[in-house]
UniProtKB/TrEMBL annotation, chain A:
<dbReference type="InterPro" id="IPR035985">
    <property type="entry name" value="Ubiquitin-activating_enz"/>
</dbReference>
<keyword id="KW-0833">Ubl conjugation pathway</keyword>
<dbReference type="InterPro" id="IPR023318">
    <property type="entry name" value="Ub_act_enz_dom_a_sf"/>
</dbReference>
<comment type="function">
    <text>Catalytic subunit of the dimeric E1 enzyme, which activates NEDD8.</text>
</comment>
<dbReference type="GO" id="GO:0005737">
    <property type="term" value="C:cytoplasm"/>
</dbReference>
<dbReference type="InterPro" id="IPR014929">
    <property type="entry name" value="E2-binding"/>
</dbReference>
<keyword id="KW-0436">Ligase</keyword>
<dbReference type="InterPro" id="IPR000594">
    <property type="entry name" value="ThiF_NAD_FAD-bd"/>
</dbReference>
<dbReference type="GO" id="GO:0019781">
    <property type="term" value="F:NEDD8 activating enzyme activity"/>
</dbReference>
TrEMBL record, chain B:
<feature type="compositionally biased region" description="Polar residues">
    <location>
        <begin position="1"/>
        <end position="10"/>
    </location>
</feature>
<comment type="function">
    <text>Regulatory subunit of the dimeric UBA3-ULA1 E1 enzyme.</text>
</comment>
<dbReference type="GO" id="GO:0005737">
    <property type="term" value="C:cytoplasm"/>
</dbReference>
<comment type="similarity">
    <text>Belongs to the ubiquitin-activating E1 family. ULA1 subfamily.</text>
</comment>
<dbReference type="GO" id="GO:0045116">
    <property type="term" value="P:protein neddylation"/>
</dbReference>
<keyword id="KW-0833">Ubl conjugation pathway</keyword>
<feature type="domain" description="THIF-type NAD/FAD binding fold">
    <location>
        <begin position="44"/>
        <end position="513"/>
    </location>
</feature>
<dbReference type="InterPro" id="IPR035985">
    <property type="entry name" value="Ubiquitin-activating_enz"/>
</dbReference>
<dbReference type="GO" id="GO:0019781">
    <property type="term" value="F:NEDD8 activating enzyme activity"/>
</dbReference>
Length: 447, 514
């Protein structure tokens, strides 16, 4: 096969002709049987969306590439895209705006440039940074946010940021959030109207974290190839420090882990350690294919189009979640997720939590990482006083002695505690602790 | 694309090849065998990441095409749509070959079909009746899968026509599916293992006791239960009782106040004590009478051997995998080997009857192994058990249930998407039609269509689009079609049977066998 043909950029191109959007105009300018009563269907309304409706796309990966293309072909003209990643070879099977020659460049910049060049009249502004680097003013300028992310943490951060932007006196402060996600042949699309409908934090238990393998299994009784890889990753690496810092994308590092894991597997007569599995476990790789991305991205952009143009009812006010599964036939489930009064982001009630008062604060903190509704990796905790703070270092040091104290020593049965994690934005859990056992003040044996 | 993807563990110092890197995220879903099948495919798309594809179209690129198709640009205006689109699509993956064919009066589709070999065909609607007939005949004669796709406004539908029955071995069942561990009917090797490891269970030291794999715990306490109750638990209530009985056997006089291996056993015992029942889809395969051509295929020869095995043992060949469970490494590996050994024994028996078949000599052993491992989940699409229904019958059923939904809004029932299919189908030869024209066409199939409010709405929505596609809806539909093509070509996962309707207004799909 010869080299791909490149399009020359020398042709002088004027604004596209009006015929360009004939098909979009069929629905933008004509009523359908399901449109809301306030549907205008006028050239002015179309103009308004094209000139003033600003969309932010978070993520320029598998979903993000598709989302940018779809928005550009849905009549959106002002688009921003934010992504901190650079292009990797393993992106090329599905992130179709990237070519082999782009490997190493910023995803946001390459994707923006490609779509701008192909669809004339669209402006796409790239931001090659983390979402956390931008402030409220940045997010305030958009009318709608579409997320194509693979990280739960980033979703939680943008969700809490958008919920907190809502000002009851300013209708423009409410920015619909459309979130897509895929894994293999399945995926989801959901629409969040911050403060009005169920938010990402309300639905967090949908994404239960993977059960962590206990350290003692890794250290003494491995049974699965994954246990050997995790051992190499967590224990052997720490002990031997073969390179200054582990870089998941460096094949030399992965090879080192693979060899370690393989040797350990042989020692315990465990089969199945491969390079691909090593990489998969260490990087927590989720299988991804172009077709699923196409489905979910298009579904997200279809919702964005309906919200912006009012051309048909959209997911949000009633049903707000579409689950897609293509592994066995095609199955979709479109439903409503209810808003939770005790949501740590959009609710204000405390959640009941049953806890053994005889465990230490440290163990309690570790359990918060595994609970489906909290999934907090670096939480800070306060009751009447501060129990533990992750930062600043001085406060961490001051509160560290509490870590080895028992819960029963620090709080009483029925007390409320607050749990926060700034890395997730303003997520604030309120838990009412109900003791599951009697508190024994005497020292128990360490497990 | 001649580079071979290794299926075996690479030698120790080798990282993945460039190709493995590029396709890493999808190899995790369908492995090297699936990838190879995709690369060998040649797909024909009429009207509008595979080894090779060809687009046949009669249109010349117009301004409006640029507003819906990302793979056309200003330079494409005035050129054949097939040529311009193939040119830009090729950039996506230089490893894929693309061809185009301009349909003209003196260049009919038949000429292309006579020249090339294809593995799968698709066409999009609306289409001229003559072209449609040519494609259908070609697909029938060559026994090829044929896709028909229709997208207009916020609606779409596609239909797959498979040539005859389509069996799938590698269905990739959900990882949450309960494994078959034979705890109700353990074979001797397994019982012996359990007896040995639990011989002195009551006096074992804490560490040993807390690491007995739950398979052995359950087998041990089933014997105790049987002595007391005469039989092992069958009814749900009995199984619940047994779970309690098992839970009570855990030691609690330790710092943790319990034992993880018992916890794991209690959590899975209800599922593990299920009486083995043949899945409907497997039964369908056993009941299927392969026709002359089918009977010669390795699938049906192996299926026959597995059926014989099942009739003799009242059980399918053992899959041989063991879920992870708390245990010492060497004990767990021993348990794994016991299951693997039994699985190999079962494969050997099936293999023997495969070899005894007049055409069974050259069937690869690995194919028999894979079949036995997946035997409980094999699936037949388009088999005799899944007869197509008449649209009129489906419509009667659907509209009855819609009536119920309308009368009982509190049930939250969703309306049928069949009206969308009927309205789209009314425009399968001519894109643009008024809602009353659409209703009149539907009326010929489903009488009194105009009195059904949901049919009227679907007709109005289709008329509103005037045959124009919305990029999002077509992209989404293209994604679904691509998933189905992958499933059919790799013979992995389960394709739809046979029509999918998508509603971009309520964001739902519905599958019909039409």
């Amino acid at each position: 096969m010869s080299q791909p043909v490149m399009i020359s950029g020398t042709m002088a191109i004027s604004e596209p002709k009006k015929d360009r959007w004939t098909y979009l105009n069929n629905v933008r300018l004509h009523k359908g049987p399901f449109v809301a009563e306030d549907f205008e269907g006028t050239e002015e309304a179309v103009q308004q969306v094209e000139s003033a409706f600003k969309v932010l796309v978070i993520g320029a990966g598998g979903l993000g590439c598709e989302i940018l293309k779809n928005l550009a072909l849905s009549g959106f003209k002002c688009i921003d895209v934010i992504d901190m990643d650079t292009i990797d070879v393993s992106n090329l099977n599905r992130q179709f705006l990237f070519r082999a020659s782009d490997v190493g460049s910023s995803k946001a910049e390459v994707a923006a440039k490609f779509v701008e060049k192909r669809v004339k009249g669209v402006t796409i502004t790239p931001h090659n940074c983390k979402i956390q680097d931008k402030d409220d003013d940045f997010y305030m300028q958009f009318n709608l946010v579409v997320c194509g992310l693979d990280s739960v943490e980033a979703r939680r951060w943008i969700n809490s940021t958008l919920v907190n932007l809502v000002d009851d006196n300013n209708p423009d402060s409410l920015k619909p959030l459309i979130d897509g996600g895929t894994e293999g042949f399945s995926g989801h699309t959901r629409t969040i109207l911050p403060t009005l409908t169920s938010c990402i934090e309300c639905q967090l238990d949908m994404h239960a974290p993977r059960q962590a393998v206990p350290l003692c299994t890794l250290a003494t009784i491995p049974r699965q190839p994954e246990h050997c890889i995790e051992w190499a990753h967590i224990i052997a690496w720490e002990q031997e420090h073969p390179f200054p810092a582990l870089d998941n994308d460096d094949p030399e590092h992965i090879t080192w882990l693979y060899k370690k894991a393989l040797a350990r597997a042989e020692e315990f007569k465990i089969t199945g350690v491969t390079y691909s599995l090593t990489q998969g476990v260490v990087k927590n790789i989720i299988p991804a294919i172009a077709s699923t991305n196409a489905i979910i991205a298009a579904s997200c952009c279809n919702e964005a189009f309906k919200i912006a143009t009012n051309t048909n009812p959209y997911l949000g006010p009633e049903d707000n979640y579409m689950m897609y599964n293509g592994t066995a036939s095609i199955y979709t489930h479109t439903m409503v997720h209810d808003k939770k009064d005790d949501c740590p982001v959009c609710g204000n009630l405390a959640m009941d939590l049953s806890v053994d008062p005889n465990i230490t604060l440290e163990d309690f903190i570790a359990s918060l990482a595994e609970r489906a509704e909290s999934q907090l990796k670096k939480p800070s905790i306060r009751a009447d006083t501060t129990l533990y703070m992750q930062s600043p270092p001085s406060l961490e040091e001051q509160t560290r002695p509490n870590l080895i104290k028992k819960i029963g020593e620090l709080v009483g049965n029925g007390d409320e505690i607050g749990v926060t994690d700034p890395s997730l934005g303003t997520v604030n859990f309120k838990y009412r602790l109900n003791f599951s056992k009697e508190f024994k003040a005497v020292e128990g044996t360490e497990s | 694309m001649t580079e071979v993807i290794r299926t075996q563990t690479p030698p120790i110092l080798h990282g993945p090849s460039d190709k493995e890197k590029k396709y890493d995220r999808q190899l995790r879903l369908w492995a090297a065998s699936g990838q190879q099948a995709l690369e060998e495919a040649h797909i024909l798309l009429v009207n509008s990441g595979i080894g090779k594809f060809t687009i046949a179209d009669k249109a010349i690129v117009e301004e409006a095409d640029l507003g819906v198709n990302f793979f056309l640009d200003e330079e494409s205006l005035g050129k054949p749509r097939s040529e311009a689109c193939v040119k830009l699509l090729q950039e996506l993956n230089p490893d894929v070959k693309g061809d185009w064919y301009q349909l003209e009066k003196d260049q009919p589709l038949q000429t292309l079909l006579d020249q090339q070999k294809f593995t799968l065909l698709m066409y999009s609607l609306p289409i001229e009746p003559e072209t449609l007939l040519t494609i259908q005949n070609y697909a029938n004669e060559n026994k090829l899968p044929l896709f028909s796709i229709h997208s207009a406004g916020f609606y779409s539908a596609f239909r797959i026509h498979l040539p005859g029955s389509f069996p799938i071995v590698d269905t990739h069942p959900e990882s949450t599916t309960t494994p078959d561990l034979r705890l109700r009917t353990p074979w001797k090797g397994l019982s012996d293992f359990a007896a040995e490891i639990t011989a002195d269970i009551d006096i074992q030291e804490a560490r040993e006791h807390g690491h007995i794999p739950y398979v052995a715990l359950i087998l041990h306490y089933l014997i105790e239960w049987k002595e007391k109750h005469g039989s092992i638990p069958s009814e749900y209530a009995e199984k619940k009782e047994f779970a309690k009985f098992l839970a009570a056997k855990a030691r609690t006089n330790n710092p943790e106040g319990g034992e993880e291996n018992f916890d794991e056993g209690v959590a899975s015992v209800l599922k593990l004590l299920h009486e083995p029942k043949l899945e409907g889809s497997v039964k369908e395969i056993f009941d299927h009478e392969p026709n002359g051509l089918e009977a010669k295929s390795s699938f049906w020869i192996i299926a026959g051997a597995v059926k014989k095995f099942y009739e003799k043992h009242k059980a399918l060949p053992l899959p041989g995998s063991v879920p992870d469970m708390k245990a010492q490494s060497n004990v767990y590996v021993k348990l794994q080997n016991i299951y693997k050994a039994k699985a190999r024994e079962d494969v050997a028996e099936v293999l023997e009857s495969v070899r005894a078949h007049p055409l069974g000599k050259d069937i690869p052993t690995t194919e028999v192994e894979v079949f036995c491992k997946n035997a409980a989940f094999i699936k037949l699409v388009n088999g005799a058990g899944s007869k197509t229904s008449d649209v009129v019958n489906i419509a009667n059923e659907e509209f009855k249930s819609d009536q119920m939904a309308a009368n009982n809004p509190e049930f939250g029932m969703r309306f049928s998407l069949l009206p969308i299919y009927l309205a789209l189908n009314a425009t399968c030869y001519f894109a643009s039609a008024t809602s009353s024209e659409i209703l009149a066409t539907i009326n010929k199939i489903v009488p009194e269509a105009s009195s059904n409010p949901r049919l009227v709405q679907a007709a109005e929505e289709v008329a509103r689009a005037k045959g124009g596609e919305l990029h999002n809806i077509s992209s989404l539909t293209g994604g679904m079609v691509a998933q189905e093509i992958i499933k059919i070509i790799t013979k992995q996962y389960i394709p739809i049977d046979n029509t999918c309707i998508y509603d971009g207004i309520t964001s739902r799909t519905q599958i019909f066998k039409i």
